[in-house]
Amino acid sequence: MKKDIQIPDVKNVYVAALFEYNDDFKSDEWNIYIINENEEALDTLLIVSDGKSDNKTTSTLRKKLERLPAHSAAHLEYLQTELTSFENCFKVTYFIGNKMFHKDFVFPPHSISQKKAKAIKAIGKKGILAT
């Protein structure tokens, strides 16, 4: 049965960390986004995220998005600055048509920093893409 399950490679979907100004709190903060650069919309997105360091683990967060249109992005969560020293993993599962896709997007420890931010063309801002 397992040999019959085929999950295609994820293409043109990214998870990014952006350092943005929050008007409500009058401060800069890290926010995590999912980006869809496909020609098709993504349906029934399930995102499970957690963070780990040598001796600590964050709580697991779960998020569901019904649909992410083609060439768009959606906010997933705020990331506390203290957690940028953790390995942060975002497990993303979604459908295009009747095909299921899955990928674990990982930010290695200390990879989220302003110094490492680069232009992300898909959303017109600077940030860090997960691997």
What are the defining features of this structure?
131 residues, mainly beta, Immunoglobulin-like, five-stranded antiparallel β-sheet, four-stranded antiparallel β-sheet, 9 strands, 0% helix, globular
Structural summary, described in words:
The protein has about 130 residues and is mainly beta. It has a single domain, classed as Immunoglobulin-like. Helices cover about 0% and strands about 55% of the residues. It contains no helices and nine strands. It has strands spanning about 15-20, 25-35, 40-50, 60-70, 70-80, 85-95, 100-105, 120, 125-130. The strands form two sheets. Strands 5-2-1-9-8 form a five-stranded antiparallel sheet, with no helix packed on it. Strands 4-3-6-7 form a four-stranded antiparallel sheet, with no helix packed on it. A hairpin with a 4-residue loop joins strand 1 (about 15-20) and strand 2. The two termini are about 30 Å apart. The mean pLDDT is about 95.
Order of helices and strands: EEEEEEEEE
Helicity, in percent? Answer: under 10%
Q: Span between N and C termini?
A: 30 Å
| Sequence of strands across the biggest β-sheet | 5-2-1-9-8
Total discrete domains: 1
* Poorly predicted tracts of residues: none
Biggest sheet details: 5 strands, antiparallel
As a whole number of angstroms, the C-alpha radius of gyration is 15 Å
Outline type: globular
Class inferred from helices and paired strands:
mainly beta
CATH topology: Immunoglobulin-like
Could you give me the name of the CATH homologous superfamily?
A: Immunoglobulins
Number of DSSP helices?
Answer: 0
Strand segment count = 9
